[in-house]
Write a structure and sequence with these properties.
Layout lengths: L4 H15 L12 E6 L14 H16 L3 E3 L9 H10 L3 H18 L15 H15 L1 E4 L4 E4 H11 L6 E2 L9 H6 L2 H9 L4 E11 L4 E3 L4 E2 L2 E2 L7 E10 L5 H7 L7 H11 L1 E11 L5 E6 L10 E4 L6 H4 L5 H11 L4 H6 L7 E8 L6 E6 L11 E4 L5 H10 L36 H15 L2 E7 L4 E2 L12 E4 L2 E4 L32 E3 L4 E3 L9 E3 L14 H4 L12 H7 L2 E6 L7 H14 L9 E6 L3 E16 L7 H14 L3 E5 L4 E6 L11 H6 L4 H4 L7 E12 L4 E2 L2 E2 L1 H6 L4 H7 L14 E6 L10 H7 L2 H10 L7 E2 L5 H15 L16 H19 L3 H17 L5 H11 L4 H10 L23 E8 L2 E9 L4 H9 L2 H7 L6 E5 L3 E5 L1
Parallel strand pairs: 1-2, 1-24, 13-15, 24-25, 26-33, 34-37
Antiparallel strand pairs: 3-4, 3-5, 6-7, 6-10, 8-9, 10-18, 11-12, 11-14, 11-17, 13-16, 14-15, 19-20, 21-22, 21-23, 26-28, 26-29, 26-32, 27-28, 30-31, 34-35, 36-37
């Protein structure tokens, strides 16, 4: 019987589906274990072999836990709201729901063919109204809550209103907006209803506020910081600017300390914990207030070094700071506005990362030092961020290198306040060795004492206080998109009102266009049926809006992370229409025991989810404050990419005498002399070059002399002109490996390709010389990605080798947490192993199934139990790669031993089952069992089978080993000598001679001398 993996895998996948083999139910007779994968976004291209890596690992562990007697919950679903589907809708007019459904069908087929033990009866989709009903519900709970610093948790807004009604807000300890105005109980009672709503918005955990956001004009939406890479949108690479907009925000900052503390209670990778710790950014220091001369305005700063306050020589505000417009003098207005406009084009991440560029503008205003009363110039600089701290810093150039560089660049004084320190070459930042000088009452004090004294004196003046600050900012929760969760919000007189929970979900309306409206409203502004009838409690046509009983609905939608922030809890009771989950379900499943997913979600999904979980814990909805006990970040599977390179240059000259004809002559001469670095130019003399990096190590190192030098005498008259060549960009474009034979680019095929053809003239040089160029592409191992044309489709692998082979190979590539390169040729090894495993059970005539009831040999017992021990240790330690090696060794040994014993082969099938479930199920069936192998008890390791009862002694004659003899370990020295001397091979070696002596070391060697 041949190993027909296609038929075997098809049959068992059908069996699991029809019998709902992996369906999880509440079962108090078994301990629970919850294994979760980060659910996928269903993209149009489907899975590549890099995607299933974490799923295979989690599936092995889930199957193992079932064998160990656990009631395992292992669900799967889809993060199905997303920008790609919306972009496709904009381009084609096809509704995102249609695209998403088609993509999900592809994903489901691919996931099923890999044999995952998912409980598909619990599938969730974030774009399903039955699911996002509860995302909307949580939003309402957040809106109706505030954070009480005294109890250190979220509470109902009703408790806050009660305090306002009885004593006002003077003693309220809340996380709230900075500009809250104090009022009494009498004041509160006299406020209009709208005024009360405005005040409550300053306290609610989700609130409306005007804030600086990352606006992407090309995508027509706000982006989160983690959706921006190198200053452009992660999706599409579009420019992003900073812009002020009224947005929904989440007051995640209220949970900053608890988010930090919670990291000590979970078993998560340390690098991921470090990422969250740095993102939250706890700093201890002081707030200090500087009055602005000639204004009523004050500049509040947060500093971790209040001890250096006498070293302040200027103030720096973020360009977006609200005071900039108020304090800038008329003389400086144009310069400041130009700088603000330029800064808006840079992302916050770019500004934080760029430590080399020094830029700024003087406002013309001066602040007053709180102690010396000296005037301090106020500048703006893009290295200060509006959202971090107060958006203003007291700049101490002698103690901060960025301030030092800024002061040097703009010729601002740098007073030295550090005793015995030379600051002529740079700032001094070693606070532990600091001794303060030139600082009045701080003179002679070390860092810690100076810090305390400075805070004391600031508080005495009423111009500051000790404070703990966090880098973590409230999360913007609005997106100007169509394909996302609608807010359960309508507006009465401009104030947000929540739709009652019993009327949820508020479903996405149909629209004709998925772009923003002509007046700049989000895509939902195109909906004609998008108003709320507050009497009938239903969505009605926009033409019924009367601002009496029918009101406009929110036009923004929720961000992508909304639906993923509580899906792990919804899996516990996914079909409950009456509540987010039942108490019975949440009390039984509790939390996720093992969560596997990518480290790229460290400061996005994983941080927001922890925030939502803590909020739900405060409300008593969940029993655990952290949603996942253990988390593993799987590494990535890399592929080999190929790419071509373009260099862009521009020429800056002071003369228009250089003609197009002359420039063209230079181009032709260059291309003739540099066949591996070809250039062309446009009417602006902006150059595009195709640079063959395989042949050219340094490109354009002496561009001026090398390029124009080709013109000889024609160039002499231009030699003294002031012109420069500037490298604009070094851009590479990944190319499909199909276009390459070895490493040489087939340029004709490349140009004809439907994808690349439109890019040819815009991206590369328009030169006939390229067509004959022997262009060698660069190769690089990098993350497997469809955009890099280095993906391998799992469908093709499963067709040729089977899902079990793919599963084993992905585990065999290396440790789970590490990145590893894919090589399709390597899969033949694990496929050969599976065929050898099959033959172990089919050793009869013509491959017939052959398993006996005979007692196994001692060696077979030993092979089995060392395999049990190793595999169990490997799975518990998530060392899946070494288990595959162990299986290979075991099958080789058992084959050599000609083992056919059921006592060995039955437990071996169970051991293999988590890794290669299809073949294990088939073998289990052939062994005569009914049903699935999936819940059969895991084999028990017995130490006695590994205890050695005998020793194979090397027997040497005059130091040279001649043969080996196996003897019982419990023999005495004399008994060992007698047994060796009596052996026929000893007699052959001695040939009647009497040895001089016999050396016996029990358990080690025997040496016969003479």
């Amino acid at each position: 019987m041949q190993y027909d993996f296609k038929e075997i895998e098809k049959n068992w996948q059908k069996f699991w589906a029809e019998n709902q083999t992996f369906k999880a139910e509440i079962n108090s007779d078994k301990p629970k274990f919850y294994v979760l994968d980060m659910f996928p976004y269903p993209s149009g291209a489907g899975l590549h072999v890099g995607h299933p890596l974490g799923y295979i690992a989690s599936d092995i562990y889930a199957r193992y836990k079932r064998h160990k007697g656990f009631n395992v919950l292992h669900p799967q679903g889809y993060d199905s709201f997303g920008l790609p589907a919306e972009q496709y809708a904009i381009q084609t007019g096809q509704h995102p729901a249609v695209t998403t459904e088609k993509n999900i069908t592809t994903y489901r087929r691919q996931l099923d063919q890999l044999g995952f033990s998912f409980d598909w009866s619990r599938e969730v989709r974030t774009s399903d109204p039955k699911y996002y009903k509860w995302t909307q519900w949580i939003f309402i709970q957040l809106f109706n809550s505030w954070y009480n610093k005294t109890s250190d948790k979220a509470e109902s807004v009703e408790t806050l209103i009660s305090v306002f009604e009885t004593e006002g807000n003077a003693n309220v300890q809340a996380v709230c907006d900075e500009d809250v105005v104090q009022f009494s109980a009498e004041d509160w009672k006299s406020f209009s209803d709208k005024k009360k709503q405005e005040i409550l918005l300053q306290y609610r955990l989700t609130y409306l506020a005007e804030s600086e956001v990352n606006w992407c004009p090309a995508l027509g939406t706000v982006l989160a910081n983690d959706e921006i890479v190198n200053g452009v949108s992660e999706r599409g690479g579009h420019p992003v600017i900073r812009k002020k907009m009224t947005q929904w925000s989440m007051r995640i900052s209220a949970y900053a300390q608890r988010l930090l503390d919670g990291l000590d209670t979970v078993d998560w990778p340390q690098p991921l914990k470090d990422s969250q710790t740095n993102w939250i950014g706890r700093s201890q220091g002081a707030s200090a207030i500087f009055n602005v001369k000639g204004h009523d305005e004050k500049i509040e700063v947060f500093t971790t070094r209040p001890d250096t306050i006498f070293g302040v020589s200027f103030m720096t505000l973020a360009p977006e700071h609200e005071l900039v417009a108020k304090i800038t003098t008329p003389e400086q207005k144009a310069e400041v506005e130009a700088y603000i406009e330029a800064t808006a084009k840079r992302s916050e991440r770019d500004r934080m990362a760029d430590v080399k560029t020094i830029s700024g503008a003087f406002t013309g205003a001066y602040a007053e030092h709180p102690f010396t009363k000296e005037p301090i110039p106020v500048w703006i600089g893009d290295y200060v961020l509006a959202g971090y701290g107060t958006g203003a810093v007291m700049s101490v150039p002698c103690g901060d290198q960025r301030d030092y560089d800024f002061a040097k660049h703009f010729n601002i004084p740098i007073p030295n306040i550090f005793e015995g320190v030379d600051i002529s070459e740079g700032a001094f930042s070693d606070k532990e060795t600091t001794v303060i000088t030139n600082s009045d009452f701080l003179n002679g004090l070390p860092y810690k004492k100076a810090m305390k004294r400075a805070i004391f004196e600031l508080e005495k003046l009423g111009q500051g206080e000790g404070k703990i600050n966090y880098r973590l900012r409230d999360a913007v929760f609005s997106r100007q998109r169509y394909w996302g969760e609608p807010f359960p919000v309508y507006y009465v007189d401009g104030m947000p009102q929540m739709i009652a929970a019993e009327h949820l979900p508020i479903k996405l309306p149909e629209v004709d266009k998925y772009l923003p409206t002509e007046t700049g409203e989000p895509p939902l502004g195109n909906a004609t049926v998008w108003a709320w009838d507050a009497e009938k409690n239903e969505v009605v046509s926009n033409d019924k809006i009367d601002h009496k009983t029918v009101w406009p609905l929110e036009l923004n939608t929720m961000p992508g992370w909304a639906g993923s922030s509580q899906y792990f809890n919804r899996y516990m009771d996914p079909h409950n229409a009456n509540e987010i989950f039942s108490k019975e379900a949440i009390d039984y499943w509790q939390d996720v025991d093992l969560y596997i997913g990518g480290s790229e979600h460290a400061t996005g999904h994983l941080l927001y989810s922890r925030f939502w979980q803590k909020f739900m814990f405060d409300l008593g909805l969940v029993p655990k404050e952290e949603f996942a006990k253990k988390l593993i970040n799987q590494g990535m599977i890399t592929g080999t990419s190929a790419f071509v390179q373009r260099l862009g240059f521009e020429i800056d000259w002071r003369s228009s005498d250089i003609s197009t004809e002359l420039m063209g002559k230079a181009i032709d001469l260059w291309n003739k002399n540099h066949p591996n670095v070809l250039v062309s130019f446009d009417e602006n003399f902006s150059f595009k070059s195709l640079a063959n990096y395989a042949k050219t190590s340094t490109v354009f190192s002496n561009i001026k002399d090398d390029f124009f030098g080709l013109l000889g005498k024609d160039f002499e008259k231009y030699r003294d002109l002031n012109f420069t060549f500037t490298l604009l960009q070094d851009v590479r474009l990944n190319v499909d490996l199909l276009h390459i034979g070895t490493d040489r680019l087939d340029i004709e095929k490349f140009k004809r390709d439907s994808f690349y053809k439109p890019l040819w003239n815009s991206f590369f040089v328009d030169s006939k010389a390229v067509e004959t160029m022997n262009y060698v592409c660069r190769r690089e191992v990098e993350k497997m990605s469809k955009s890099k044309y280095n993906v391998v489709n799992p469908d093709a692998i499963c067709e040729e080798y089977g899902a079990d082979s793919l599963r084993l190979y992905e585990m065999f590539l290396g440790p789970l947490e590490q990145s590893k390169p894919w090589n399709t040729a390597g899969i033949t090894g694990v496929h050969s192993f599976l065929k050898k495993l099959w033959r172990l059970y089919h050793s009869g005539p013509e491959g017939a199934f052959s398993v006996s009831e005979t007692e196994p040999s001692k060696d077979s017992y030993k092979t089995l139990h060392k395999t049990i021990k190793k595999v169990e240790e490997d799975i518990e330690n998530f060392s899946f790669n070494t288990s595959v090696s162990t299986f290979m060794i075991a099958v080789n040994e058992l084959s050599s031993q000609k083992c056919t014993s059921r006592v060995v082969l039955e437990p071996l099938a169970i051991l293999v089952s988590p890794y290669a479930p299809h073949i294990a199920e088939e073998l289990w069936k052939q062994l005569g069992h009914e049903g699935s192998i999936s819940t059969v008890a895991f084999p028990k390791f017995e130490e006695k089978y590994l205890v050695e009862s005998s020793k194979e002694y090397p027997v040497s004659f005059n130091g040279k080993m001649r043969f080996k003899l196996e003897l019982p370990l419990d023999l005495s020295k004399d008994e060992i000598e007698a047994a060796v001397m009596a052996h026929e091979k000893t007699e052959q070696q001695l040939q009647g001679r009497t040895p001089k002596k016999v050396i016996v070391v029990p358990g080690k060697i025997v040496n016969i001398v003479g």
